[in-house]
Amino acid sequence: MSSRILTDFDLLVPETVPEALEMLNRLQDQVTVVSGGTDVLVAMKFGFDTPYGMSLAKLAGLNYLEFDPQQGLRVGARTTITQLLESPEVKQYYPAIWESAVNFATPQIRNTATLVGNLLRASPAGDGSCAVYALGGKLVFSNEAGEREVDIDDLWVGYATTARNKDELATELRIPIPAANSINAFKRMTRVNEDLAKLNVAVNLTMDGNVCTDARVAMGCVAATPVRLRQTEDLLKGAEINEESLKSLMATVSAEITPIDDQRSTAEYRKQVSGVMVKRAIEQARDRVTA
Ligand SMILES: Cc1cc2nc3c(=O)[nH]c(=O)nc-3n(C[C@H](O)[C@H](O)[C@H](O)COP(=O)(O)OP(=O)(O)OC[C@H]3O[C@@H](n4cnc5c(N)ncnc54)[C@H](O)[C@@H]3O)c2cc1C
Question: What pLDDT was estimated at residue 165?
Fold first, then answer.
């Protein structure tokens, strides 16, 4: 079978969210949701088969990006990577997300791909996923009975598998306003810029002067899902951030991850550079504040 020919499927094009939810309720896991399609269509070209593809293209009501200084950021399910990149509030308050968008693929893909699609793909290499994981947040799922929030910490349950139920549509991502005195940043390594990451990392640190009082550190491409580095976070909490503490942190990072060899990198290389990447992300966040 050619890898370029899509398998046959029926295209559903709901025009309202209730219509989409009725279709999901009726057809359940026979439906594959297609948002930007930048993951789904590639999968189909490589043989992924689905009876129904449900396009979200006409659900204009899900395309928004709203910032409130008290509530934080609300990202509609149809909001693209380009929209994040063009938002002054994302750049100012959520630089980790903004930096993940800067580094994301090409303009054509950024104009189509959504952040929520990135989370729902549940790839360990997702750049937006890594940034959001460090910041924390909740994904809103809707079905005909109502809606529920799933904490980002509980979203990924395995490779390419999420806590989404088969009758649910993700409608909104909610990211809290970063704590006062917090700093966040994202970094990634790739073979070439347009490629998926071979390693990515995002940090979100709350600081009291030069002392870190709280920390979230997320890393991608080192396990079946994006992971939080809990031991590294524990080491950061209460520590002064200086050359010495960052150096000793690097060994902990490497010991905490379980990468594999794949076409983008080797496990050994990932182990070796993971600590350096965390160190650089922390330095990037710190330097931005002191600049
Ligand atoms: C050339 C190329 C370069 C790429 N570069 C990068 C990169 O640099 N970094 C990166 O992280 N990714 C990259 N990707 C992967 C992809 O673009 C991203 O994962 C993107 O964010 C997916 O968003 P989408 O809207 O296109 O999702 P889709 O392909 O539409 O969907 C992805 C998954 O999420 C589900 N889904 C989407 N929206 C919803 C919803 N609202 N409710 C329920 N389920 C939903 C779909 O059913 C599917 O399982 C690249 C892809 C390509 C083809």
Answer: 98
Q: Are residues 70 and 146 in the same domain?
A: yes
* DSSP structure class, residue 44: H
pLDDT single digits (tens) 155-190: 999 999 999 999 999 999 999 999 999 999 999 998
250 within some domain? yes
Question: What is the distance in A from the centroid of ligand 1 to the CA of 126?
Answer: 9
- What would the two tokens of residue 281 be? 């992300």
Give me the domain span that covers residue 22: 10-55
Same domain, 153 and 190: no
Give the Cα separation of 254 and 246 in Å (integer).
13
Q: 251-277 pLDDT, tens per residue? A: 999 999 999 888 888 999 999 999 999
Q: How remote is the CA of residue 39 from the centroid of ligand 1, in Å?
A: 4
Same domain, 220 and 280: yes
Cα 236 to averaged position of ligand 1 atoms, centre (Å): 32
Residues 162 and 251 in one domain: no
Q: What are the φ/ψ torsions at residue 34 (nearest 5 degrees)?
A: -120, 110
- For a pocket test of ligand 1, which of 118, 140, 172 has the largest count of ligand atoms closer than 8 A to its C-beta? 118
Q: How far is CA 132 from CA 17, 96, 129, 219, 266, in A?
A: 25, 8, 5, 11, 25
Query: The domain that contains 194 carries what CATH number?
Result: 3.30.390.50
Q: What is the pTM of this model?
A: 0.96
The pLDDT tens digits of the residues spanning 38-73 come to: 999 999 999 999 999 999 999 989 999 999 999 999
* 151 shares its domain with 212: no
